[in-house]
Amino acid sequence: MSDLLQYVLTGLGVGCAYALVGSGLVAIYRVTRVVNFAQGGLAVLGAMSASTLLAAGLPHGVAELLAVGLAAGAGLLVGLVAIGKPGTSPRSSLVITLGLAVFGYAVAVLLWGDQPRSFPGLPGAVSLAGARVQAHYLLVVAVTVPVFAGLALFFSRTYLGKGLSACASNPYAARIVGINVTRMGLLAFTIGGALGGLAGVLVTPVQQVTFDSDVALVVNGFAAAVLGGLERPGLALAGGLLLGVGQTVVAGYGGAAYQIEVALVLMLAVMIWRSARRPLVEEPAV
Amino acid sequence: MNVAEVTDLVVRYGAATALDRVSLAVGERELVALIGPNGAGKSTLVKALSGLVRPAAGSVRVAGRLAHVPEGRQLFGDLTVEDNLRLGAWRRRERDPAAVYEVLPALVPLRRRRAGLLSGGEQQMVAIGRALMSRPDLLVIDELSLGLAPLVVADLVGHLRELNAERGLAVLLIEQNARLALRLCARGYVLEAGRIVTHGPAAELAASPRVARAYLGGPVEAGT
């Protein structure tokens, strides 16, 4: 029983990272209709930058924040390349983000090599009802929860957040009232970059990161996001946590090799279920 | 002094010419109708006025603020009525919808409702309210009456008359329902296949056999 509890708590920590990557995908998709496959790469960038900054002697907190800022900036750059040119269709933009993700590999290998990297997180372990969990997993949850709450407030309560929601709801009408939809898309890419970077920074102390860790992150993040049809950050959070817990439980009871399959099976099931109801990716109205 | 002036405007979509040397003016405090059949280029003209399409030739001049009530309402369906209104003021600092509620009091009880769930008439009122949030000098309305019950249209027309009389709002009304447009407006233009084929005072247009036959199903009495 305490084993199960330990797996669940660990899974929640891992799931938070998926949820962050996934909600970044959602934030971008809602506004631009683009699935940003470079999202996992931004997580890797955040993780690697944090390790470099910490090695350079910056204190914890500052290094991580800077790394998240760098990932946000990189997210903006990805957005500029993907949607900056007027008239680029969401499908072309998606392919551009795939290309940038591969390009990101080259940059990461060049800068940080191909060996796994890590840095220390919150030290120690905590005992909860007989289960021992690394304290860092709890930190991950403790950071993710307020971030999600803040995101929800931003989108539902602030004027700028409503502007983003307006672009998501009806981009043509958004242009009519004078909203610069491209600029809002770039803002979404920046937010997505920050969320991806945060995911990378948070998981690195407990899961080593290599240049190609982005695949696992973006597949899991996408699976989490798909649960809400790529539209609902709240469901992305639920999906991420579900995935994280599912994977650690499967791994804990002997199937460590099947972690990514858990995500793929869940994603397939959700997609089949959803497509039976309505098309997942709707054609934008012209 | 005109609020909006379009001179020899040409708009092309690829090889197709949507507007061919169209000229049109809306004066201050003026109610102007633009009528014509489906596909004549009316909506293209509106988009050119709002800067949503780029002209191939000619000029579009808008003095003061223009607000656009697009065809099909085009609300932010997932957001509340109040959010829709507030977003209408995107380019302004003043985002309090109180003034719009004063003009369109029927919106007050709907303010917390999701715009996408309202009736067609209510949605059209929200679309007009959202446009008013930018404190326009000219309101361009694309298909006011489409899909609405006659009573609802009459109510909306009443509001437009009031806005025009009390606040000096100029209106360019694009309508399939020529009878309605020529009753409300003082002046009108007829657009066919991308060209202005005739224009003049609404009374004259309504009396002209050509317009009457094509758009009115016989002569009508013209309004103010």
**Structural class of the helix and strand makeup of chain B?**
alpha/beta
Structural category of chain A is: mainly alpha
Number of helices of chain A: 11
Share of helix among residues of chain B?
25-40%
- End-to-end Cα distance of chain B: 21 Å
- Indicate the proportion of strand residues of chain B: 25-35%
- Could you name the CATH topology of chain A? ABC transporter involved in vitamin B12 uptake, BtuC
What do these coordinates show?
Chain A is mainly α. Chain A has a single domain (2-115, 122-277), classed as ABC transporter involved in vitamin B12 uptake, BtuC (Orthogonal Bundle). Chain A has helices spanning 2-32, 39-55, 62-83, 90-112, 135-157, 159-169, 171-176, 181-203, 214-226, 233-255, 259-277; strands at residues 125-128, 131-134. Chain A has a two-stranded antiparallel sheet with strand order 1-2. The model of chain A has no long low-confidence stretch (mean pLDDT 88). Chain B is globular. The relative contact order of chain B is 0.19. Chain B has a domain at 1-64 and 174-224: Rossmann fold (3-Layer(aba) Sandwich). In chain B, the strands form two sheets. Chain B has a six-stranded mixed β-sheet with strand order 5-6-7-3-8-9, sandwiched between helices. A three-stranded antiparallel β-sheet of chain B has the order 2-1-4, covered by helices on one side. Chain B has helices at 42-49, 81-87, 98-103, 120-132, 150-167, 178-184, 202-207, 209-216; strands at 2-13, 16-27, 31-35, 57-62, 66-69, 138-142, 170-175, 187-192, 195-201. Chain B is built from eight helices and nine strands. Classes of the chains: A mainly alpha (286), B alpha/beta (224). At the A-B interface, helix 6 and helix 7 of A face helix 2 of B.
